[in-house]
Design goal:
Layout lengths: L1 H8 L11 E8 L8 E3 L8 E8 L8 E5 L7 E8 L4 E9 L2 E3 L13 E8 L8 E10 L4 E10 L8 E5 L10 E7 L2
Length: 186
C-alpha cells in the first residue's frame, strides 16, 4: 500500500509498481537508541532511492538531518511546509551543512507515539545534476498531530553512495525506530 501511495504522491513520470522497488537495507534501532543511522555502499543501479521510516527522536521538536557521502560543507538547501490542524508554517534555509527530513518523528510528546515518513531521493546516481530530495512525514497523537512536506537539494553532482541520518541537537533515535532504503528502477 505504501508503494501505491508513494507513487501517487511523488510521481516521477514513470508508472511504479510493487516490483519497481527493491529493498537495499533496513536498520532497526536497538536498546539505548542510536545517535545516527547510515546506509553505505549504495549501488548505482537504480533510477531513484526511497527511505521509509517509522521512528521517534527522544525529545520533541526535533528532526533528522541528512548528509550524502559524508559531505558536511554548506552545499544543502531546505524548504518546508508544515501544519498541525490549527496552525501552519513554512520556511527555508540555504547554504546549510545538511538536508532535513522526518520532522514528525521528533514532535510526538508521548513515548508510545512514533512518526512516519517517506523520502524520495531523485536521480541519485546521475553525475550531471544536483540531487533533489522530497519528504512527507507526520504523526498522530489521538486527536493532535502534524504533517510536513520538505524539499531539499544537495548541490553536488557526485553519485550518492552513502546516506547518514542524525537527529539534530545531539539527540537519538529511540529503540524500535526503523528505516528502510529502497532502490526504484527506472
Amino acid at each position: 500500500m505504501i508503494g501505491a501511495i508513494t507513487a501517487g504522491l511523488f510521481s516521477t513520470g514513470v508508472a511504479a509498481s510493487t516490483t519497481s522497488y527493491e529493498s537495499i537495507s533496513t536498520v532497526t534501532v536497538g536498546g539505548g537508541g542510536a545517535s545516527s543511522i547510515s546506509f553505505t555502499s549504495i549501488p548505482s543501479t537504480y533510477k531513484h532511492l526511497e527511505i521509509r521510516g517509522i521512528g521517534q527522536i527522544n525529545t520533541g521538536t526535533e528532526y533528522a538531518l541528512v548528509r550524502f557521502n559524508s559531505d558536511s560543507g554548506a552545499n544543502y538547501s531546505i524548504h518546508y511546509l508544515n501544519g498541525s490542524g490549527s496552525a501552519a508554517s513554512a520556511g527555508a534555509a540555504t547554504s546549510t551543512n545538511q538536508a532535513a527530513m522526518f520532522y514528525g518523528m521528533g514532535m510526538p510528546s508521548t513515548a508510545s507515539t512514533f512518526g512516519v515518513g517517506v523520502c524520495s531521493i531523485l536521480d541519485y546516481a546521475d553525475t550531471n545534476k544536483y540531487k533533489t530530495v522530497r519528504a512527507l512525514d507526520g504523526f498522530d497523537a489521538n486527536g493532535s498531530g502534524g504533517v510536513e512536506l520538505v524539499s531539499s537539494s544537495w548541490r553536488n553532482t557526485a553519485a550518492i553512495t552513502s546516506i547518514s541520518l542524525t537527529p539534530n541537537s545531539s539527540k537519538t533515535f529511540t529503540q524500535y525506530s526503523q528505516f528502510a532504503l529502497y532502490g526504484i528502477k527506472g
